[in-house]
Amino acid sequence: MTTAENLSKQSIRTKKHLKQAFISLIHEKGYSHVTITDIVKKAQYNRTTFYHYYVDKIELTEELQKEMYEMIKQKTMNRYMKGQRINIEKMDAYSFELIHFIYQNKGYFNLFLINDTIPGLYQDLPNAIFEVLKDNFVFTAKDEKTINSVEHKLYMAHGTSGVIMDWIRNGYDLKPEEISIKLINILHTFASNLVIVNAGK
């Protein structure tokens, strides 16, 4: 392994520790009260290390938020390929990889429940789901009416994120597989199948 590869892995690990400390501190004291001193102390680094990667708390916030936004989109698409036709009746508890990703990252997604949280965070989940629906999915309605307008997909995105947020608020009371089946059952009430028009990234 080269020195550059070692440094890259170390950088990824250090930034991950800083983000984890940051998330934990938001839970403890609220976003507006977290300082860089708090972050480095919690992560067991020094301020020099922090400033090596970030200009300030805002830059750390933006990177974390953008990273998770892209992961929401990626995990929604991971299991699918361009041109694939999916029969909704054959979807199962593992069809929604996003649900499992949320469950594995409870610390971050519990930030959606905090009043003093990352600015603008509340809209990230429905917006990311909407982008995926708009750009990648074509649904076939059970009654042959169109369900692929922007309005339909906004409705689906906000409805889906609403179910997910209720699950988060209830302390992840259902297994990821159980909430996935509930979402599939809702989807099945108005769509018979869907086609992936763009491949996952």
Automatic annotation (TrEMBL):
- DNA-binding region listed in the record: 35-54
Q: Which InterPro entries match?
A: Homeodomain-like_sf, HTH-type_Tx_Regulator, HTH_TetR, TetR_C_Firmicutes
Q: Which Pfam families match?
A: TetR_C_8 (PF14278), TetR_N (PF00440)
Domain HTH tetR-type: residue ranges = 12-72
Question: Which is one GO molecular function term here?
Answer: DNA binding
Tell me the domain of life: Bacteria
Gene3D superfamilies per UniProt: Tetracycline Repressor, domain 2 (1.10.357.10)
> Which UniProt keywords are present, listed alphabetically?
DNA-binding, Repressor
Q: What is this protein called?
A: TetR/AcrR family transcriptional regulator
Recorded source organism is: Gracilibacillus oryzae
Taxonomic classification? Bacteria, Bacillati, Bacillota, Bacilli, Bacillales
